[in-house]
Amino acid sequence: xxxxxxxxxxxxxxxxxxxxxxxxxxxxxxxxxxxxxxxxxxxxxxxxxxxxxxxxxxxxxxxxxxxxxxxxxxxxxxxxxxxxxxxxxxxxxxxxxxxxxxxxxxxxxxxxxxxxxxxxxxxxxxxxxxxxxxxxxxxxxxxxxxxxxxxxxxxxxxxxxxxxxxxxxxxxxxxxxxxxxxxxxxxxxxxxxxxxxxxxxxxxxxxxxxxxxxxxxxxxxxxxxxxxxxxxxxxxxxxxxxxxxxxxxxxxxxxxxxxxxxxxxxxxxxxxxxxxxxxxxxxxxxxxxxxxxxxxxxxxxxxxxxxxxxxxxxxxxxxxxxxxxxxxxxxxxxxxxxxxxxxxxxxxxxxxxxxxxx
Length: 358
Prior knowledge:
By secondary structure, the protein is mostly helical. It has helices spanning 11-16, 50-61, 67-73, 81-92, 100-107, 111-134, 176-184, 186-202, 236-241, 250-264, 266-273, 300-313, 330-341, 344-347, and strands at 31-33, 39-41, 47-49, 145-148, 154-156. 43% of the residues lie in helices and 4% in strands.
């Protein structure tokens, strides 16, 4: 998910955004679909991939693992959990120590610039973790998360797996869905951006009262061929780069503020998401033969996914180890999500290309 530029023609966004608060979120970029199979994406300078940064440091220090080694030790999807955990803890993690903090120290050598960059990392990571979970954003591997080398921000790309969309080979047949989604969710992310940035700076308090939702409430990425087990990316490199407090302190606090703001504005956010159910240009089904592109009708799968989003906004969390919860408090939901994102049993079952060891 990406924080797009403020559209001055959108009255709602103008009301939500306040002067001087835009610096909490990383610089956005725009995507414009031109046809069914083409479009324009704004070029954003000074970005480098998370995987590129980490692996380059491994190579510089002489601890990079050869590609053939990954093939030898990686587990198959049907291997028992005990084997996956053993490989992850005994073979993968020891060869991939946390080094992301070293990049921040090298890139931002002055104490003040380093502190500001680390703060930007924590804030943008926390905001996108919660927003991505709420909206079902999956496929957050090391190439889809970038670092801004000028300020330390986290920048996300590739939103084709939004709203719990499957990741299959059929997705490559047409990029229209991803381009249309990136254009149409501009308003949604501007609303979230305005709400969150205001409250990250002002620390406003909100009261919340929600009813129990009725939904399967699947996790982002759970429909992939190799299902994802975590709500968002929070691997040991990211945690270590946050400093001595790790996920405690600013990261948890920012996650709670983001969750609280999204709950406060649940009606407004859902009013932006629900129209996707009726939009014939948005592909909810990867099976081309199962779609009727000439008919504007409600997609049952889309309705289910929208209900999942609403349930998450109400505080309902379902992990792979237990049934969905009752509506949790803001603090309870954030605590549960962080625990699931850093759980070894979840990480060791992730697809090796996702890079749970990075």
